DNA sequence: CTGAAAGCGCTTACAG
DNA sequence: CTGAAAGCGCTTACAG
């Protein structure tokens, strides 16, 4: 059992030699097995198997002048996009693409620049940005670019903003519980998703005739949730908080407790993302389950369609978010300042 | 401002043409600028800049017969490894490698198979496994493979197991608080890190002359933590739980509350990973901060060293974990069954 | 210090 | 249905 030698992979010529045909024929076999005479096909098949032959993708790329490579750009240090990334890269692989992951230090601007650079390098056929690139006006480009975060922007155009129904459902539910005054703690406004949640929040409050004590801009951090609550005036009549993610929500809960308010007794709090931890906290966190795998998959599909010049697929329903009700919400207290 | 045309990148011949030299000279310039006569260098430099020339990496690979590609293998659907991944890929880029991300559906076995396949493909120069590949005996291979999760195994050999000091510190601290009977809820035992934490837990309990009510094998889930606590007998004298991660810990806390125990009043609980949410839960979670970036970076460094045939770098101190004490721990209750 | 030539492993017209 | 030839864009001996 000594197979230590760095076995050099077989070449197409070796396969051809073993099969007793020209390498042209082997190449043809690789492209379309049915273009060969059955007898020939069998011979080639055998040789390929025997030699465990795999075409040298680099040579193929060189010849076809197609890199067959896609880049996925993400923010260095962010750990959240893992699931989108793995779904997206799987989808790309299935479509025959190799996926280069580019992790960029810095903010949306740094990411946009890196993308610019990737475009100019001319060595990737498409780019998927998982982390926001700050919604720069997308110029006409030689290379298709899809930004996961701004996926919602497309939906908006179609009147189907993915976050919209969830935000609306949350507020309607809270309202049916008796809540009248709300607070939104928003996420980083360079993210389309953060802007969307905020604007749908404001629209919904308005259209339902409810009151908003504000929509505080945050940075997705727990601290921003904490601060938003602790800076509320003592006589605030906010009884429900809609946070842009679970971390903010947890910070808000902590902030409420720090002022002696109970959750959900005095304050109801909603998060977003269905972070696993939130199922086990006390109170467990009401939230919105997001199908990250579907997001990654769908975004990659759109990119593939753009690359092929096919019509971009309709946004699928699978990415519609799902509201989960847990312990962090309840009817408002009969009298807030009792 | 119309730059819509898919500008084909300039070739080395075009640069040579503009510079008035042979393409051989341009290539030489790319390898080592000082090998050119200053006057020539200037001309080439100018042409490269003017044309925004970037060597076609595919052609270069083909010629040098080096793919310059590394693969990072991770489990599909896992979202946690994002930070390790982004640090690892950045390190690889800096060293001039392209990083292909391969996300594999299924368990450690599926990942090991996929790696086998990547090795045979002969198209990557090294492989980094972020998710555990089940500690298969590593055979001699033509392609270096580094498994992040088993990094600890190397440390073990060096008597410096990364988790060891943290587990020991946790138990010593809890013991100094007065705790005598412990429970460990372990992680998925296909992970080296899970096995390590468990074994160090057992060793430490033993060497300090403490008692363990068990080391329950889990699957990293919150539910496993919950179940471990709810299945404890009513007269259990466990007062401290060391969980293999934060999710398990939060499940354990939830389990304790569900039986009417308070945390940390009746039970102290320790997690692992310093999940951001745990800073804001109530009680906030005592945990171990892990430097995932450093882990990813160091693992990639080891891979690069193996590829180059250099001595594998000493494990750095940066990966030593840092214990964080928060509200989830306290002295044990004077009488457990009071 | 610089250039002409060969060749990396494929694919794709073009003939037959 | 199959093969001989050209060529993708580079790098690397080999001459000069």
What does this structure look like?
The structure is a homodimer of 338-residue chains. The first copy, chain A, is of the alpha/beta class and 338 residues long. Chain A has three domains: 43 residues, no CATH class; 118 residues, Response regulator (Rossmann fold), CATH 3.40.50; 131 residues, 3-Layer(aba) Sandwich (Rossmann fold). In chain A, the strands form three sheets. The first copy, chain A, has a four-stranded parallel β-sheet with strand order 2-1-3-4, with helices on both faces. In chain A, helix 1 crosses helix 2, helix 5 packs parallel to helix 12 and helix 8 crosses helix 9. The radius of gyration of chain A is 26 Å and the shape is elongated. The N terminus of chain A is likely disordered. At the A-B interface, helix 4, strand 1, helix 5, strand 2 and helix 10 of A face helix 4, strand 1, helix 5, strand 2 and helix 10 of B. The first copy, chain A, binds a DNA duplex (16 and 16 nucleotides) through helix 2 and helix 4.
């Amino acid at each position: 059992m000594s197979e230590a030698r760095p076995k050099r992979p077989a070449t197409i010529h070796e396969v051809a030699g073993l099969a007793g045909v020209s390498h042209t024929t082997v190449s043809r076999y690789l492209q379309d097995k049915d273009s060969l005479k059955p007898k020939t096909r069998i011979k080639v098949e055998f040789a390929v198997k025997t030699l465990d032959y795999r075409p040298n993708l680099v040579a193929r790329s060189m010849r076809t002048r197609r890199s067959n490579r896609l880049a996925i750009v993400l923010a260095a240090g962010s750990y959240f996009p893992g699931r989108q990334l793995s779904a997206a890269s799987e989808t790309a692989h299935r479509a025959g693409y190799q996926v280069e992951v580019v992790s960029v230090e810095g903010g949306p601007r740094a990411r946009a620049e890196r993308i610019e650079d990737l475009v100019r390098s001319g060595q990737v056929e498409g780019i998927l940005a998982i982390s926001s690139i700050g919604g720069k006006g997308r110029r006409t480009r030689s290379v298709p670019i899809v930004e996961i975060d701004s996926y919602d922007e497309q939906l908006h155009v179609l009147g189907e903003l993915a976050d919209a129904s969830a935000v609306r459902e949350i507020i309607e539910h809270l309202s049916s519980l008796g809540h009248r005054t709300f607070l939104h703690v928003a996420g980083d406004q360079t993210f389309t998703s953060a802007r969307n949640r905020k604007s749908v929040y404001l629209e919904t409050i308005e259209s339902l005739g409810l009151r908003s004590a504000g929509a505080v801009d945050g940075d997705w951090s727990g601290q921003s949730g904490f601060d938003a609550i602790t800076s509320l005036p003592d006589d605030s009549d906010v009884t429900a908080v809609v946070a842009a993610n679970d971390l903010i929500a947890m910070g808000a809960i902590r902030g409420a407790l720090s002022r002696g308010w109970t959750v959900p007794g005095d304050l109801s709090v909603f998060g977003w993302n269905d972070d696993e931890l939130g199922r086990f906290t006390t109170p467990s966190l009401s939230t919105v389950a997001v199908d990250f795998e579907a997001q990654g998959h769908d975004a990659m599909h759109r990119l593939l369609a753009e690359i092929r010049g096919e019509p971009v697929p309709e946004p699928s329903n699978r990415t519609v978010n799902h509201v989960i009700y847990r312990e962090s919400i309840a009817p408002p207290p009969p009298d807030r300042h009792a």
